[in-house]
Amino acid sequence: MENLKRLFETNRAIVSEITSKDPEFFARRAGKQEPHFLFIGCGDSRVPVETLTGVAPGEMFVHRNIANQVRSVDLNLLSVLQYAVEVLDVKHVIVCGHYECGGVKAAMGSQSYGLVDHWLAGIRDTCSRHEQELARQPDDERRFRRVVELNVLRQVYNLARTPIVQGAWKRGRRPMLHGLVYDLQDGLLKDLVLEIDGNDGVERMLGTGRRSIGD
Amino acid sequence: MTWIESVVRRLQRPMQRATPSPQAERLLPTMRQSWRADVPGSAVVFLVALPLCLGIALASNAPMFSGLIAGVVGGLVVGALSGSQLMVSGPAAGLTAIVVTAIAALGSFEAFLASVVIGGALQIVLGLARAGQIGRYFPSAVVRGMLAAIGLILVLKQLPHAVGYDHDFEGDESFVQRDGDTTFTALEHALHATHGGAIVTSLIALAVLILWDRTGLRKLRLLPGPLAAVLVGVGVNALLGLANADWALSGEHLVTLPVIARLSDLAAHFSLPDWSAFARDETWQFGVTIGIVASLETLLSLEATDRLDPHRRESPSSRELVAQGVGNVASGLVGGLPVTGVIVRSAANIDAGSQTKLSALLHGLWLALAVVFASTLLNHIPLAALAAILLYTGYKLAHPKVVRAVWAQGPPQFVPFLVTVIAILLTDLLHGIGIGLATGFAFILFDQLRDPCFTVVSHSGAVLRRVQLHDRVSFLNKGTITRLLEEQKAGSRLELDASHCLYIDHDVLEYIGNFRQIALQRGIDLRLVGFKFPDEPAT
Asked: Are residues A25 and A43 in the same domain?
């Protein structure tokens, strides 16, 4: 209970600090939300993306799940994606992974964690696709990092293949897809692939990164 | 029949269906089959046409004979060339005003004939240029309004004739009559100048018509109701003469065909156009007016006749213009009034049960023969009996059932219909049609303007309003598009998707193209999808 109490106390403290400088801060943002970004990230507690990027309330629409997966049967993600693209008209969709991701690690190992094994099947798939490339990595640490990156690129590709994104691209070069990875050690975001705004962009990603995502 | 035969027959059936035209045509009457109906029908049309030809000539300040020539040409020449099965052509009340003006302005009837020839030639050109297509654009409500108005006019204008007040010329369709009366004051005058014999004759003739229509007598094809009514009318008048000479109809109450004693006298009634008149601009101006007005009246009559045709046959309209043109050239060359398709005679033709154009052709022949051989006989026909026929035809054209049917189709149909009826009734056919057409087109325009021409495909709360344009965006939709773009506020996002468009009007496209700059200035996020602007290469 102590921890929970702290949440409320901190909440009040932060709000009063903000409103003392700008009394209308929250009221102004309570209206229509018109965010520019949809962020698809991992649920990991060590990735406080809003804090790290400094986005204000109303600027970023967020969806998080274990190991930032984009699966074509995930009703939750598809609802978020459709709402963001077709109703909120977001300009950027970001898939963001992070090194030292527990989900990726679990997928690489052979230990069983229950239901989540099903969820992570896609990552095991990615690993087997890139078996040769991963085998060339000098050590386990590098291999782990590479799988995290490959996973992000794979999800960007999956995102591009959804009818929602395909339909939007047919009408214009919106939304742009981006693949990022976050480094827990230094707190920095690194870009893997940026500004994919059409199937030509996907081709380019596959071309330069054919080895990377192996199609 | 063995089972093998029945199987073979069943197999053959689709083959027969593959060639539907002979079968379909078999359903339509041919002259060979329907002469039994067409010959008596032609007699009815002839009897109705006779006083109309004379009356219209009278009203046109033209020789009596010119109306008859036009009637004969309308039957024989136009009838032979026309593609319409039921429309009758002849001199038209709608042209009398123009004819009177033209004869007065050109100075002689012969000079006027030159204009008729020019008008005919113009109609041939119009027909060859396929201008008959215009007829397809007469709004249905206006054509139906015209029919109902003509029905009402027939009833109102024939009532005086039916009671023996034969002041106005037969076939008048204008509100303000030549004798200074209007349609309604004439009715009032007629009430004070009734003729007992006429009332008796018309009532009995009307009774005969109703009897024929409501009983098995209708099936007597050789003696259709109108013909019976005329015969009974002549008989009644003869009997009245025997009983009481005061009641017998004579003089102006009877058909008055000029009597030609000898065949050699006939030639004197024909006249050639004044060839020198072709050198004058005025002749050409009147020629063009006649050509255009006669073509319009013909196309309207054609639409109306096709509408009344029980077989719903569609007449070729451009061919009709050529036929009418040849008819007018012919009529003008021999001293006749201009001809057009005429509704009253066509409606009487249909009412009499005619099936093919044999009846229109023969009515011309009867007119020709009557003038030469039967004028004394025909001069016994009381106008009251003919009035009964036209009253009944008028009643059918303006039947409350017709009005109710249009009413049921709602204001966009009923208002132009009603305006057409009232306008024709209070002016004349041509002016009334003009007013009716303007109203009809206004409603069509209004309907087109209300056409949304786009669908909003985004969700109702969406930040981006996505609008998909329909397959056709016409000039009339410009207002809707302008409103859509103008109502966008700064900061709003709008996507216009033209990828489903097969056609966008040039002006609309230009407006949207120009709005891109305005959108930038106003801070509107306008996204155009699938547009091909003429000033930039397609991507």
From this structure: no
A83: CATH: 3.40.1050.10
pLDDT band at B295 (very low <50, low <70, confident <90, very high): very high
Of B55, B54, B26, B43, the residue nearest B362 (C-alpha): B43
Give the count of domains, chain A: 2
A104 with A91, same domain? yes
**Residue A157 CA, distance from chain mean position:** 13
**Burial class of residue B215 (count of CB atoms within 10 Å of its CB; 0-12, 13-18, 19+):** exposed
- Name the closest residue on chain A to residue B467, using Cα atoms: A171
> How many other CB atoms are there within 10 angstroms of residue B8's CB atom?
10
The pLDDT > 70 percentage for chain B reads 94
* DSSP per-residue codes, A83-130: IIIIIS--SEEEEEEETT-HHHHHHHS----STHHHHTHHHHHHHHHT
Name all domains of chain B by residue range, CATH numbers in brackets.
Answer: 48-407 (no CATH), 454-529 (3.30.750.24)
Q: What is residue A177's DSSP assignment?
A: E
pLDDT (average), residues B53-57: 87
Nearest CA in chain B to A169: B529
Through-space distance between the first and last CA atoms of chain B, rounded to whole angstroms:
69
Q: How many CB atoms lie within 10 A of CB B217?
A: 14
Instruction: Mark whether A99 and A174 lie in a shared domain.
Output: yes
Is residue A203 within 8 angstroms of chain B, CB to CB?
no
Mark yes or no for CB contact B462/A89 under 8 Å: yes
Closest CA to B122 of B243, B292, B8, B259: B292
Q: Is A194 helix (H, G, I), strand (E, B) or coil?
A: strand
Q: Do residue B462 and residue A86 have CB atoms under 8 angstroms apart? A: yes
* Distance in angstroms (rounded) separating the CA atoms of residues B231 and B237: 10
Task: Tell me, yes or no, whether A10 and A55 share the same domain.
Answer: no
A45 plus A12 within the same structural domain = no
Return d(Cα B276, Cα A195) in angstroms, integer: 85
Question: Cβ(A154)–Cβ(A210) under 8 Å?
Answer: no
Q: How far is A22 from chain B (nearest CA, A)?
A: 24
Contacts of B439 (CB under 8 A, 6+ apart): B142, B415, B416, B419, B420
Q: Around Cβ B373, how many Cβ atoms within 10 Å?
A: 12
N-term to C-term CA, chain A: 51
* Domain limits for position A20: 1-31
Whether residues A89 and B493 touch (CB distance < 8 A) is answered with yes
Is residue A8 domain-shared with residue A106, that is, in the same domain?
no
Q: pLDDT tens digit string along B212-234?
A: 888 877 677 677 888 888 888 88
- For chain B, the average pLDDT equals 86
Residue B63: cis peptide before it, omega within 30 degrees of 0: no
Average pLDDT over residues B153-165: 86
Co-location of A15 and A98 in the same domain: no
Examine the pLDDT at B52 and tell me if it is beyond 90: no
Among A89, A31, A195, which residue's Cα sits nearest to residue A81? A89
Whether B254 contacts B261, CB under 8 Å: no
Residue B451 has which token pair?
């056409």
One domain, residues A103 and A26: no
Residue in the structure block whose two tokens are 């003696």: B223
Looking at the annotation, which residues of A are catalytic?
A: 42, 44, 46, 98, 101
What is the pLDDT at residue B461? 80
